[in-house]
Amino acid sequence: MSDTEHAPGFLSKERIIAGPGFNRWLVPPAALAIHLCIGMAYGFSVFWLPLSKALGIKEAIKCGPDIGFFQELFITTCDWKVSTLGWMYTLFFVLLGSSAALWGGWLERAGPRKAGVVSALCWCGGMLISAIGVYYHQFWMMLLGSGVIGGIGLGLGYISPVSTLIKWFPDRRGMATGMAIMGFGGGAMIGSPLAAELMKIFASDTSVGVYQTFVCMALVYFVFMMGGALGYRVPATGWKPAGWEPPVHQASNTMITQHHVHVSKVWGIPQFWLVWLVLCMNVSAGIGVIGMASPMLQEVFGGSLIGMDAKFVDLDKAQLTLIAGVAAGFTALLSLFNIGGRFVWASFSDKLGRKATYFVFFVLGGALYASVPASAMAGNKLLFVAAFCVILSMYGGGFATVPAYLADLFGTQMVGAIHGRLLTAWATAGILGPVVVNYMRDYQLGLGIPREQVYNQTMFILVGMLVVGFIANLLIRPLDDKHFMSAEELAHEKKLASEKAHASEVHGSGTPTHVNPAFVWLAWAAVGIPLIWGIYRTALSVAKFFN
Fold first, then answer.
1. Secondary structure percentages of the chain, helix, strand, coil, to 5
2. How far apart are CA 245 and CA 248, in angstroms?
3. Is residue 118 a contact partner of residue 175, using CB atoms and an 8 Å limit?
4. Tens of pLDDT along 50-105?
5. Most buried of the four, 146, 202, 308, 345, by CB within 10 Å?
6. How many angstroms separate the CA atoms of 59 and 62, rounded?
7. What residue ranges define each of the domains in the chain, with the CATH number in brackets?
8. What is the DSSP code (8-state) at residue 244?
9. What is the torsion angle, in degrees rounded to the nearest 10, for the CA atoms of residue 62, residue 64, residue 65 and residue 70?
10. Which of 274, 278, 275, 300 is nearest to 289 (CA)?
């Protein structure tokens, strides 16, 4: 065969092996560019109210009582209910977990560039299909577009940088994954206010401005996501940071292995299921709180949020509007702690160790959940809010720390694929947490318990979840040698993953070796400026809470 027949394609992993002198700090902004875009999945609720009156514009045209969910998929004569639209949100996270599990192995072999491009096509293409669905008032197209196709893009985009970042930062695994996964939490912080501004611009007497907003955001996101995907580079086999040596002995607090597990074997390894349970319990408790944060604050403190001595049920419509504005600030404050916790806790785990960090999550989290009923009963808003801020920081921190935990236990060769399979725990928690919290609230209200007390029992159920997580984390031990790949198996896997190429073979493909420091700053500015704008807009909402 000729050399041209062996030439790697533009998206292949061989083409993105970095040459000597490449600056590894260019990789995190590439990951952030993708995560900040797909993180808008968290902020899609900004579209629910406008979409619920897409036909009526000013007021919703309600469907008759005989119109069920399946009729709403195709009906064009009445508006969708908010509860119906919420199925898009459910599909996002079910598809995120399942697609990451299904295609994680392919991602390891195809490389982050190819996965990032597919993610951009799915996420942005899905938004365009949804825009058509809004235009023609076909909800099935929105479910197919953003829910299914976009959900696949979410899964691939979410795990695309994990393995790459861990290999670039073996000395700071937690910090590296924390930076990228912080972006996923920050996506809604940028996307939600941007979507709100765009809908105001496009709104008219005949349109609520949603489909035009979908088109604009899809185009902007596509530019950023393609920039991120094309910016990915992987280190050459055997690369390590200058002056860093891998630890010779396993430290008892970190359990860092120098061997590697094949993704096909993880289903049968007890430690995988223990980490699965650790993540599921941490996320179930946190995601339940996220879903009820705003109504909980309003119902617990009622009129005291606006300086009145009145319970929630005694407030009139104008007063309820005022406290809803305060609660929106509380929700914004929680989002800041959710995002900050992803970076801070994951970086902290590099020093403390992953297992010990999760112990902090479960012990401190359990104590804070248990304290909530007492601070609510005492009317102490400061302690109540502070507890939930710390809880949400640990919720975000759990997401960011778990990829490094997996790399410590299972090695780095296939950590992206293993992380993809672990995200089924997130999909499970996305159902378990909200269901427990919402049904418990309705059950308590049905018993005639006052609104300000209906969350007390729920808090102790969430404590119970954290106890389960604590026990699972306690049982995690280093893997038995029998689970790791042999030297021959590892060599075969590296060959399949295209790591057989050396950087010298790809210099002609345009892979940079020495990068101008100004370009590194420019890459960080491209993701940093939108993130700072999102934090600023969120801070404005937080200010309403403190005022």
1. 75, 0, 25
2. 8
3. no
4. 999 999 988 889 888 888 888 888 988 999 988 888 888 888 878 888 899 999 88
5. 146
6. 9
7. 8-238+486-541 (1.20.1250.20), 250-484 (1.20.1250.20)
8. -
9. -90
10. 300
